[in-house]
């Protein structure tokens, strides 16, 4: 224990950013707890010069907690931000889905138009092919007829001679 005014060895820590509201020491005199108006709670390990750290002390070391204290307004603001971000994600998802459907329908229409165009071109080329084939057949028949006529005339002229 120290006598007032403090004239022995002590260490001064600056940890709170607001006035301390409570200071307590644990029942076993190992820890000093302080809290302040800034909402922070600090835990100090109190050691006397002659105190040897026991195995029990090493096992019971308090590890930093994963939880933190926040105000209700901070939590509400984060909740509002989260909801806004979720709404934006939903809106963007809907826009992307709409664009994909629009693009898909555009490509389907384009494909139908191209199919019609090329089907018409194929039909025209087939008709042209058939027409040319018929002309060729007619020309062949006419040529064969001309050859027959020439052969007959030639045979007739040969007989006349």
Automatic annotation (TrEMBL):
Region feature Disordered, mapped onto this chain: 135-161
Family matches, as InterPro entries: CFA-57, WD40/YVTN_repeat-like_dom_sf, WD40_repeat_dom_sf
Protein origin, superkingdom: Eukaryota
Protein name from the UniProt record: Uncharacterized protein
Species: Alexandrium andersonii
